[in-house]
Design a protein that fits this description.
The protein has 135 residues and is an alpha+beta fold. The chain is built from five helices and five strands; from the N terminus they run E-H-E-E-H-E-H-H-E-H. It has a five-stranded mixed sheet with strand order 2-1-3-4-5.
């Protein structure tokens, strides 16, 4: 039996957007990474969260040189507190996946501090990187 958490109309949970495009999720680019297993773990965490966490996939998020990329989007409350999406690059191993799950379960951007090791993997969103290059 599936249970659903009731949340206020329009409230969004912390959402993980997992890139699975041309480079992310590709065993040829990153051999030795269990790409399917990573996505399954993220989805299992979302299923167990009671609606506090969601997972989506994207064909390509852009920064292919930093594959695997996961974007941690803030919940409605996190955004209300001024948080923006955090882009995580090189999410290739169980430790990175554990850190993403732990942060998202704690509320994600605007609600909880990310694990220190995860901050080292944060990358600028592609539009921010383009703006810096153009200066």
């Amino acid at each position: 039996m599936t249970t659903f958490a009731i949340r206020p109309f329009g409230a969004r949970p912390c959402t993980l957007v997992v890139c699975r495009g041309c480079c992310c999720g590709d065993a040829r680019k990153n051999p030795g990474t269990d790409h399917a297993g990573q996505l399954a773990r993220l989805r299992d965490a979302a299923d167990a969260s009671g609606g506090r966490l969601a997972v989506r996939t994207s064909d390509c998020l852009g920064p292919c040189g930093q594959a695997n990329v996961i974007v941690v989007q803030p919940s409605t409350e996190g955004r209300r507190r001024g948080a923006r999406a955090a882009w995580i690059g090189w999410a290739l191993d169980d430790d990175a996946t554990d850190d993403v799950i732990a942060w998202a379960e704690a509320g994600g951007p605007g609600m909880a501090e990310p694990p220190t090791t995860l901050t080292l993997q944060m990358i600028p969103p592609p539009s921010d990187a383009r703006r810096r290059v153009g200066r």
